[in-house]
Design brief:
Shape: globular
Strand order of the largest sheet: 4-7-6-5
CATH architecture of the largest domain: Roll
Low-confidence stretches: none
CATH superfamily of the largest domain: 2,3-Dihydroxybiphenyl 1,2-Dioxygenase, domain 1
Number of helices: 3
CATH topology of the largest domain: 2,3-Dihydroxybiphenyl 1,2-Dioxygenase, domain 1
Mean pLDDT: 85
Length: 145
Amino acid sequence: MRALHQRLNIVGLGVADVAAATDFYRRLGWSPSSVSNPHITFFQSGGAIVSLFGRRALMDEAGLDDAAGHGSAGATLACNMASKEEVDATLAEAAAAGGRISAPAVDRDWGGYSGYFTDLDGHAWEIAWNPYFEIAPDGTVTLPA
């Protein structure tokens, strides 16, 4: 049996309105890829891709019942920053773009600093500074061995 490769290439977010969600992420400073279209928007995010896809279309394509609670409940997306100040600035930018701060940034028991916001469709983003992660100039995060 072949094992599933240990990697994540694309995070697909089901959204109520692709155009409105795309505008929200644009206000955060993200640039859509040229392969985006009115039905799906792609953003390069370090070594991975974030896509915005109509929630109903996504549920249909995946063979899931939207009412059954499938989606991002119980999951978060995370963006690691190089400093506590960058965490605070990013959360402020998210709020200014129309996001909702669900938990302000605080020092965490695990030694880092983080806070949370939700986008227009309720997808939870953690914005964090983790003293144990190395962040490359392009934003790629490397775990210690």
